[in-house]
Amino acid sequence: MEDDDEAGAVERASRLSRRLGRADLRAVPEARRALRELLQGWGKPGRSETAELLTSELVTNALVHTDRDAVLTATVSPAGLRVEVRDFVGRRPRPRVPIADDGTHGRGLILVQALADAWGVRPHGVGKSVWFELGAGAA
């Protein structure tokens, strides 16, 4: 019976889902921590750190550029990771070249575009999901 419990725990651990409160930037480090726990032992060195960085960018964008809640979903398998952040605003994000005087703003999607194996935006009836994928192998 114990083996069944352990197998169920491993299966459940392969998915993360969190509701992110509107404009609550405390959700960013909490999302990173939850993703780090999910990814323990996954991928080549550096992959989980890249995943945390990109997740932070998507979560921050959803909370800063919308006035609504968002939902973070991460699904991990031996082959790869998919992270989605769904918000409830239809406006599509666009990568933009940051302005030199703009501090650290404007770089999130550029990082996602540069570091993810794949990424995109999927429209929903209300809102959209911005997602990225990382393979477990490449570092």
Automatic annotation (TrEMBL):
Write out the entry's keywords from A to Z.
Answer: Kinase, Serine/threonine-protein kinase, Transferase
* Gene3D superfamilies linked to this entry: Histidine kinase-like ATPase, C-terminal domain
Q: Does the keyword Zinc-finger apply?
A: no
Boundaries of each Histidine kinase/HSP90-like ATPase domain copy? 23-132
Top-level taxon of the source organism: Bacteria
Supply the Pfam families for this chain.
Answer: HATPase_c_2 (PF13581)
Query: PANTHER family of this UniProt entry?
Result: ANTI-SIGMA-F FACTOR RSBW, ANTI-SIGMA-F FACTOR RSBW-RELATED
The name this protein goes by in its record: Histidine kinase/HSP90-like ATPase domain-containing protein
Its taxonomic path starts at: Bacteria, Bacillati, Actinomycetota, Actinomycetes, Kitasatosporales
